[in-house]
């Protein structure tokens, strides 16, 4: 079975639409949404409803820190501009959409895989896997062979090295399938669908094939200028539009 993986959608309708089409073309039979459906972008209601429809059809979704922030903004550890986007977002979600976000699990274990937004050692603490030490900490916190997560906004692949208590890093090349050897344990960060921050405006998603045990990162061009224009028209902070344009 080929599984499509999307993280950090961030209310970006245009990016999500393009990534869903790309994953269908890649032969994905199931979808997993790795959190942060909302925040930053101009289409939170549409994105939440789209994910709800896929979950009703058998997809998996977990809660991200921006999803949690919409539910409890007073507890969120976010910078001022992100807080402004959260307040704007909350006013545009109805009771059913908020309930859907509230009921999302922090993590889901399935077969040899763990799906979580930030990390496996403290899913509700939202710590970043942004170093070898953090990757090893997350790997040590689960008995699953592969952990899939988001939160960092750039794709990355870590695995347990031959040294005790250490992790190693591999930079995935978009479009090139990578065999996740069964003799190792892996942590894959699938990049961000809704808000790339690496200067490349193309959206990011991934697929994992349970038969061949291969992972591929995809970069998907989409109408990022339209998405940025919608952010500006909504009156959201300008920085979120500039990021989509690769300007920040």
From TrEMBL:
It holds the Pfam family Metallophos_2. GO terms for cellular component: cytoplasm. PANTHER family: BLL5683 PROTEIN, METALLOPHOSPHOESTERASE. Belongs to the metallophosphoesterase superfamily. YfcE family. This is Metallophosphatase family protein. GO terms for molecular function: phosphatase activity. Residues 1-202 form the Calcineurin-like phosphoesterase domain. Coiled coil: none annotated. It comes from the Bacteria.
């Amino acid at each position: 079975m080929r599984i499509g993986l999307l993280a950090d959608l961030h209310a970006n309708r245009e990016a999500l639409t393009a990534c869903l089409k790309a994953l269908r073309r890649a032969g994905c039979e199931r979808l997993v949404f790795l959190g942060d459906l909302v925040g930053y972008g101009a289409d939170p209601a549409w994105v939440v409803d789209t994910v709800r429809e896929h979950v009703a059809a058998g997809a998996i979704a977990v809660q991200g820190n921006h999803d949690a922030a919409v539910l409890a903004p007073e507890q969120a550890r976010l910078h001022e501009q992100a807080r402004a986007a959260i307040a704007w977002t909350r006013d545009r979600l109805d009771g059913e959409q908020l309930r859907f976000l509230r009921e999302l699990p922090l993590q889901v274990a399935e077969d040899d895989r763990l799906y979580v937004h930030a990390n496996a050692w403290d899913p509700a603490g939202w710590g970043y896997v942004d170093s070898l030490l953090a990757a090893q900490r997350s790997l040590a916190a689960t008995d699953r062979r592969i952990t899939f997560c988001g939160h960092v906004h750039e794709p990355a692949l870590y695995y347990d090295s031959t040294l005790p208590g250490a992790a190693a890093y591999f930079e995935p090349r978009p479009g090139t399938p990578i065999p996740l050897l069964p003799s190792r344990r892996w942590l894959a960060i699938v990049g961000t669908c809704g808000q790339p921050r690496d200067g490349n405006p193309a959206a990011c998603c991934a697929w994992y094939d349970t038969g061949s045990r291969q992972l591929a990162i995809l970069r998907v061009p989409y109408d990022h200028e339209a998405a940025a224009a919608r952010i500006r028209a909504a009156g959201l902070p300008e920085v979120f539009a500039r990021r989509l344009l690769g300007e920040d």
